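[Solved] Which block belongs to which protein?

Original post:
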Amino acid sequence: EAVSKLYDSKAKIAIRTNPMDSPYFEKEIEVLNAISPDAVRVPKIRSVEDVLRLEKLIDKDIEIHLSIETKEALSSLSRLKTSERVTTVFLGAIDLLEDLGLGSHLIDSFSETVKYIMCKFLVDAKTAGFTPFSFVYQNHSDMDGFKKWIEIEKNMGFEAKACISPAQVKAANSFFAPSQDSIDDAVYIKNIFEKNEALGIGGFKDEKFGFID
């Protein structure tokens, strides 16, 4: 009912369902097909067969987003992009750590295991052609901890972060946005490259950036 009143919103609306083994799941999908949000996000995915079932149940005009929260999904992530409709994956770090028998307390320790999982998730998702989102930082009042994680994630190569509060959204948007210095550098490189290209020069040495090709 709430979403049906948001058709004029500029936001892209994605709705998270219960897991596929929930007794309410198919009824949820029936209701969501009628509402037709931009995307449906399904947790606890385990297999390619799960995703193929989603493609049959969810109307073809609705994107499918997957929450990667099980060891089976993590190990088969590069095979889960069954069509162009399946666009986005979210790292469900807490549930995934529990499913692996490791414990979600590792998220607060910046453990190398969590960083490995994040790197594997990111590379496999990019290889398959997904848009990958890093995990939700549950302690929404700990902005210092949140900012430490988005710094790690940006350095890894993530470009998107799942958030649970407006303050987190503001911080993530600010951090992931390109700095003015990086924009100025890009414009400088573009301009000097185009000037040299017009002279038939494909590779050249620049005083500021060294060799540009």
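(Second protein starts here: sequence line, then its structure tokens.)
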Amino acid sequence: MRRFDGKQKRYFSWRQAAHTAYKLYERYDGSAKHYQAVAIIRNKIRGPADAVLASFNTVLNFKAIIARLDFTYADRKQPVYLIEQELSTLGHGSLTVIEFYDKVERKLTLLSNKTLMTYEGYPANSINE
């Protein structure tokens, strides 16, 4: 698992990797293995992201760490329904086919990422499907 240094563009992929790594140890909650796994994930957070966790005195708990980082780094500017509305009204205009495709792809990626950060597990997967 790579480090997260507080760059917003890298947050979603780092978050996905952290969840994947944590799932292996989630069932050992309360054990030394679980504590070590969370400590390793926490130590992968550097720079401004580390300062965010330290300034809010975030406990060594995976859900607490992710919640604080989500609050700081997740794109919360637009709600899901607004992104869906923008996507449904997107027009080709004077764009080339490739430019239009890229624009649609960016909106779909934003929508997918936003959904996964807003809803966990089954609701996120069913909405994205």
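Accepted answer:
You had them paired correctly. Confirming on the second one: The CA atoms of residues 83 and 89 lie 10 Å apart.
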